[in-house]
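Researcher: First entry.
Model:
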Amino acid sequence: MAQQIRLKNEEAEIEDLTEFLIKAGHGVKGLSETELGDLPQQYIQPQSERPSCMKIMDESSIPIIDVSNWDDPMVVKSVCDAAHKWGFFQIINHGIPLEVLENVKLATLAFFSLPPEEKRNYFKHTSPSNHVRLSTSFIPEAENALEWKDYLSLFYVSDVEALTLWPAVCRDQLLDYMRMSQVVIKPLTEVLMKGLNINEINEKEWSAMTGSKRINLNYYPKCPKPELTVGVGRHSDVSTFTLLLQDDIGGLYVRAPDGENWIHVPPIPGALVVNIGDALQIMSNGKYKSIEHRVIANKINDRISIPLFVNPKPSEVIGPLEEVLKESGEKPKYKTVLYSDYTLHFYRKNHDGKGTLEFAKL
């Protein structure tokens, strides 16, 4: 009888939390603002996933690359070497005006400052489109322990759709940023392809690498017990590559090349963090690495970050590029997969390190 009562109480607690977070539109931000002393049970991570179990290399840093001249052979070498060894690097002097970046951060704060009754219009059960989705954690229905964050995910189809469906408080700034991001996306793609001995990219290859884009606005509120939870669990992105704009708080950690330790990615004013995604690891037959990363929670400050995911079109079939296999003489390490199937697999489960890549391995 006691066990039955306890189970009923747990079910009521979960139902109450879902009501508060999603149906009422408060999200984790609203939970944080109640100034609760303890962490709800649903957010307590297994011991192995807590920050205390991270081995951190304080003396190491991912590469920081000045890309003011993309044609410079040293820039090409630095980018390709970083994509091969680290899977992560920061770029400075990239050509996107600082004002545009600051406007995106302000727009992110403006969205999450909206009243709950406005934000709840974008959660799954009320959103006007699958292309516009506010969520809390990652995939709450698939997770054993929740992540301490809220995020708005916007899949870009066209300016017309964005102007119609995206929240008015942030859409103009995000569209401006996405337009300006082409000054990075195009030369970065060309440089990465040069590292694979592909000097010309045809229309089909452009589509296979950069045919669709998604931008997320991430909000990590202050957490009462950051040592018990995570902002984002261990994962690699499913993109071709990701451009990440972060604020000045910090909290992003990436897996070191030794596969054991973690390295903090310190915020640099005006810089963008670039990380290789699974799609490019597959297309490069493993020459470029998509790397596990995670975000730790913070007791003192709220944190925001804005990743722009540059992806293949969902209808593209991806696999090791013929030119790469021909040049290296290697056998393919990955099978060909429909990109939409690959992403669907990613979104059906909790964050599990590099587990998604198993879907494409031979």
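Researcher: Second entry.
Model:
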Amino acid sequence: MSRSDLGWRLVRYRSQCRRFFSSHNQSFDPPISPTLRRVVVTGLGMVTPLGCGVGATWRNLIEGKCGVRAILPEDLKMDGFDEETRLYTYNQLTSKVAAVVPCGTGVGEFNDGLWLNSKDSRSMARFIAYALCAAAEALEDANWLPTEQEEKEKTGVSIGAGTGSISDILDASRLICDKQLRRLSPFFVPRILINMASGHLSMKYGFQGPNHAAVTACATGAHCIGDAARMIQFGDADVMIAGGTEASIDALSIAGFCRLRALSTKYNSAPEEASRPFDCGRDGFVIGEGSGVLVLEELEHARNRGAKVYAELRGYGTSGDAYHITQPQGDGRGAILAMNRAIKQSGLHSHQVDYINAHATSTPLGDEIEARAIKSVFSSHAISGALALSSTKGAVGHLLGAAGAVEAIFSVLAIHHGIAPLTLNLGKPDPIFNNNFMPLTTSKEMTIKAALSNSFGFGGTNASLLFTS
């Protein structure tokens, strides 16, 4: 081959390389920006210390009843331990009050035999069963039990929990200590995985849309609802079953929160007075259990099938404190960011919000800082008397991972029924309150067109949901 032929071939090869890399380096057009779809609430389901079912819970809440009671040794779920160990553990607990789901076969009671004691329930811990029970009510309420494959593929699940099944972990550790590890249930792992609430629900009904579970401590329920709404907004699903669940009334969970000095200890002899959000006598939260589940749906999808609509989810704000694992920043900056972001996304102005369901858990520091944040966000509207404010944890305690979902349902029901629920046990309000800026001490009939629900969790994670009529 002559030198000229070699040079010609080299030139041709370089030209081909330039064309190849030029064609493969061309930029794609920007992705099409989706038009965000509107999300509405078409079904509700609850399991709470005030009762099993939305009707029982809401009625008892509005009437000022309380779901907190004294705990007994048998509430600690230590069946595998000897009686001496059970009594010793019970006596060591500094907090002996809890908001327990009423169980039984009566109206408004959670039926263990139906949800937990069948052969098919061996892989199902109590927190999962609560979610399935609440979801069954929500789906029936929404009249949404799809049979077509396409409908199932466009229906998803987003249900989380804060701690899962700690009692199963305690039982497993006992087997190790007793050198009986071979007796460990093969269902141990599926029983403790938090995403299994969503997993069991999707399998039961054949839902093949997004299968999601947020775990953000006490903000879990709100984050699961907000995340689900965004999945609908962006077209990942037409319907989402969303909420939170928790079953943490057990020896290890209560002991852990006692050691953290987070639980109320002053009212062991007067359990119904223990959870007192915003009150000067508050000394910690009351641990609770239960589940709240909503059916969220794309607006046109709901209209086309003639579904009833409780409310629209217009705003979802999230933020991080970036400050401390358990304490919010003194100025409530994280809460302020979450509320402002929810309001901005909704397209409303702060003065258009009629009711706030506060996160207030009955802790000395947290309640005051949230009140300060609310005052900062709503300024003159907060002190005008037009903004109704309450914390429903006085009645149901703090449901941890389920709290945000249960309180979101309370906010939706406040809009639907035109009643703002009361704050129980508010005898002497915190000095941060004055004049017209005061939590409700009785349920108030009023027109509620927009309601905000706050949820804040350990690790400085915050979420606010804004619902409108």
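Model: Note on the second entry: The radius of gyration is 25 Å.
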